[in-house]
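Re: Re: token formats

Sure, here are both.
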Amino acid sequence: MKKWLILPAGFILFLMGCSADKPVDMDAWQREHYGFIIRTSGQMVSKLGDTNVVFIDTRRFTDFEEARIPGAFPADERGGTARLTLAMLDTSKTVVVYCGTSVCDTKLFPVLAEMNFRKVIYLSDGFGGWIYNGFPVERGFPALQ
């Protein structure tokens, strides 16, 4: 009978020991495993107007012209504008990459790494999530600054 009590008690102590570890730093884990941090549009809307944050739109230029996150830069790999746009940006800034969906964003990450961008955030719900949440957009051809 005592053997059967020791086994569950040992298992419970084992589980308690596992939970005593310090929590995982998810930003560090994501950066190490993916090369970027994952955020939603709700987490990033507060960064609009932050001079240390740059939004990069990887959708087709026609979609970018129709509507985009305010202040975003176009970087359509299909149209060849990605490297040109990225070459003009400060690599020390935080770059937030988004698309219309969650698929085409990932094509730009190897280019960002190659060009030495180290603070990269992936907008997991894309421009669709931005619109769905009712966040502000710019429309029309962007003014040159």
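Second one below.
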Amino acid sequence: MKRGMMFSIVLMFLGMGMSTAVLADNASEPMVILQEEVTYEEIQKEDVPEAVLTAVKESYGGYELEKAFLGSDGNYKLKLIKGEQKVFAFFNSNGEVLKVETAEDGK
């Protein structure tokens, strides 16, 4: 009887060790996501899609388009000015605003 009880205890400890080993083996490693930096190339104002120009007129009616850039991701970066105020507005080709940044002097 002692032998049977000892055998049961040994099996129990082995089973607990195996489940820990299985859990450790199934643990997922952290996922690394690399994001490519977007580069912009200046383009002519005439090359900006009509949908983007319409969105600029609707959202930034008093602003003037000073410079236009096309990003390597296909989105547009526009430098808009209104008096002393300067902003960079980012649009997709459908004219949807992606983000807006305040332009610092010298940019």
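The first strand starts at residue 40 and ends at 43. Residues 40-102 form a domain with the Nuclear Transport Factor 2; Chain: A, fold (CATH 3.10.450.360).
- S.
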